[in-house]
Specification:
Blueprint (H helix, E strand, L loop, with lengths): L1 E6 L2 E5 L6 H5 L7 E4 L2 E6 L2 E7 L5 E3 L3 H11 L9 H4 L5 H10 L9 H10 L5 H15 L18 H6 L1 H4 L7 H14 L12 H8 L7 H10 L11 H10 L13 H13 L9
Antiparallel strand pairs: 1-2, 2-6, 3-4, 4-5, 5-6
Helix pairs in contact: 4-13, 5-9, 5-11, 10-11
C-alpha cells in the first residue's frame, strides 16, 4: 500500500488489495456513512473523511497522511490480508463459492465499541434505511458538532453514555419504542463501569460476549456484532434475519459457519451482502 499526497489534505492510496469501499459500507456494519455526488463520507469518533474509489481500486481521500495512518487505515482494516486463499482451503459448495465471489472486497470495520453497542441496540429488528435514520437522529439531537473538518458538510459525533443519560427523558420521546430502555440501560452499565468497554479487548471471545450480555436487551446478535465490528473477533457471527434466511433457504439449513473458524465473521458478512443486495432473492421474502 502506497500513500501519495496530491494536494493540501488530499492523498491517493494505491496498491490496496481486496478492498471494495461501497461493498464494505453496504454490508450492515455501520450506519454512520453517506454517499453524495459519488463521494463517500464516513464518520468515526470526531473524525470525518471523504473518499472516492477509482476503478483500479485506489482511493482518493480528503485527509492528511497523519490522519490516514492514525485513523482510517485502521478503521478500514487495510493491514489485514483479505485474499481468498484461506477460503480455498475450506470444503465449500458451489453456492458458498458464489457467495464468496460476490462478497469479495468486504472488510471488517474497526469501530468504536460504544457506538457499535448503542447502534445495534436501538436498531434491532429494523431495516437498514430505518436503522440509519434512527442513528442519524440520535447523533443530530445529542452529539457534538465536528468542527475539525473543511469538507463543507456538517456532522456530529455519536453521543457518549453520559450524554445519553443526561437526555434520558427526551430519548423516551424519540419514537424507538422499547429500545429506549435498553439504550439507557446500556449507557448506565458503560458509564458506571459495570461493562468496561475499554478493557474488554483483554477478554477471550466467550468472556467478552458474556460481559456484554449483562446489559438488558443485549443477546447473542448484539454481543456478536460488538465482538466482530468493534473488537474484530473474526469468529464472531451475528445472525440477523437476512443471514438466518439464507442459511435456511439458500444453503439448505445444513451449513454451519463454525467450519470457517476465524473466517466465520467475514463469511457471515458475505452472506448478508449477497442476500441484502439482491444477488439472491428468495421467492417468499
Amino acid at each position: 500500500m502506497r500513500v501519495q499526497r496530491i494536494a493540501e489534505r488530499i492523498i491517493r492510496v494505491e496498491d490496496i488489495h481486496d478492498f471494495n469501499l461501497l461493498k464494505t459500507m453496504r454490508s450492515g456494519q455501520s450506519f454512520r456513512w453517506m454517499v453524495s455526488d459519488g463521494l463517500v463520507y464516513c464518520i468515526t469518533g470526531d473524525n470525518v473523511v471523504r473518499l472516492k474509489q477509482k476503478q483500479d481500486g485506489s482511493l482518493v481521500v480528503a485527509a492528511s497522511e497523519e490522519e490516514w495512518e492514525r485513523v482510517w487505515k485502521t478503521y478500514f482494516d487495510l493491514d489485514h490480508d483479505y485474499s481468498q486463499d484461506a477460503f480455498a482451503k475450506i470444503d465449500q459448495t458451489e453456492v458458498e463459492k458464489r457467495i464468496c465471489n460476490v462478497g469479495r472486497g468486504i472488510h471488517i470495520l474497526k469501530q468504536d465499541p460504544w457506538e457499535v453497542l448503542a447502534s445495534f441496540i436501538i436498531t434491532q429488528n429494523c431495516h437498514v434505511s430505518r436503522a440509519r435514520k434512527i442513528v442519524g437522529e440520535l447523533c443530530n439531537r445529542y452529539g457534538t458538532e465536528i468542527t475539525n473538518t473543511d469538507l463543507g458538510v456538517k456532522f456530529k459525533t455519536f453521543p457518549s453514555p453520559a450524554e445519553i443519560l443526561k437526555h434520558g427523558d427526551d430519548i423516551a420521546r424519540m419514537g424507538i419504542g422499547y429500545r429506549d430502555y435498553y439504550l439507557l440501560s446500556a449507557a448506565e452499565c458503560v458509564d458506571s463501569g459495570i461493562v468496561p468497554l475499554r478493557s474488554l479487548h483483554l477478554c477471550n471471545d466467550t468472556r467478552l460476549k458474556q460481559v456484554l450480555e449483562r446489559i438488558v436487551g443485549v443477546g447473542p446478535m448484539i454481543s456478536n456484532s460488538v465482538a466482530l465490528f468493534a473488537y474484530q473477533r473474526r469468529s464472531a457471527v451475528p445472525i440477523d434475519m437476512w443471514v438466518e434466511y439464507a442459511l435456511i433457504y439458500l444453503l439448505g439449513g445444513g451449513i454451519s459457519l463454525r467450519k470457517y473458524g476465524d473466517l466465520a465473521g467475514l463469511m457471515q458478512q458475505y452472506i448478508y451482502y449477497y442476500v441484502r443486495e439482491g444477488a439472491y432473492l428468495p421467492e417468499n421474502r
